[in-house]
UniProtKB/TrEMBL annotation:
InterPro entries: Extensin-like_C. Residues 64-241 form the Extensin-like C-terminal domain. It holds the Pfam family Extensin-like_C. This is Extensin family protein. It comes from Sphingobium agri.
Length: 241
């Protein structure tokens, strides 16, 4: 009899687990961004696997550009540049259009995976945070550049920076509708709305980029948010500070 009770309990437990799995699957069918095997769609909200899928675009220039096309993102595909550790062939320059958040300087051309993550960050993180916290939308995202053939921190030896392949961009500030500027260097510290906004967009970036570094990381990042799509991100490896 005792053995029968044990078998029944196990069957009930198995049934409960199956029921939970079915409920979970039914929920996730309506959130494809939470499933690892679905295609990335920039029109969907950020999901559990969005960051991994963005990082996995590295090395798939055609697939990444097709993703931008489907999302209606206007861009110019750049010619391959550099050589060796400093070569990249998937850079894009986002076109500046009326009614669309611009990058300043506009000539920047990050890798396509970084550009795709930037647009999703703009749509799903930056603009909602600006509207909610600051009461105005962002018109311009300011940066300190993307491509730079150098090693990490400009050292003579060691690993090359993600900037060396245009797989990174450094964000220095935001200009709101009406002209007000939010600066990472000036506004990161404190308890004001500007600081709250900057931390919100940093935290949101952590879900989309393989690496997100802010002034909380070290003095070298006192004036910008470093965002990159290191390939380790496709396996879930993320650094967020």
């Amino acid at each position: 009899m005792r053995q029968l009770h044990i078998i029944l309990r196990r069957l009930l437990l198995l049934g409960a687990l199956c029921a939970l799995a079915l409920i979970g699957y039914a929920y996730l069918r309506h959130r494809p961004q939470d499933l690892p095997w679905t295609d990335l769609d920039l029109a969907q909200p950020v999901g559990m696997f969005t960051g991994r899928k963005l990082a996995a675009l590295t090395g798939d220039a055609n697939g990444c550009r097709a993703l931008l096309d489907r999302a209606g993102v206007s861009y110019v595909a750049m010619k391959p540049k550099g050589s060796g550790q400093c070569r990249h062939s998937d850079a894009v320059r986002l076109r500046q259009e009326d009614g669309v958040v611009s990058l300043s300087p506009a000539s920047v051309a990050p890798s396509c995976p970084v550009a795709a993550a930037l647009k999703l960050w703009e749509w799903q993180v930056v603009q909602p945070a600006a509207e909610q916290i600051l009461g105005k939308p962002v018109e311009t995202i300011q940066h300190l550049g993307s491509y730079s053939c150098r090693r990490i921190y400009g050292r003579a030896q060691g690993s090359f920076s993600e900037h060396a392949t245009a797989d990174a961009i450094d964000i220095s500030g935001f200009i709101l509708e009406g002209g007000k500027r939010i600066s990472v260097a000036r506004d990161w510290r404190g308890e004001g709305k500007e600081a709250i906004f900057l931390r919100a967009v940093r935290d949101g970036a952590c879900r989309l980029f393989s690496t997100t570094l802010s002034p909380d990381y070290n003095a070298a990042h006192h004036d910008h948010l470093h965002l990159d799509q290191a390939e380790r991100g496709k396996l879930g490896g993320r650094l967020c500070r």
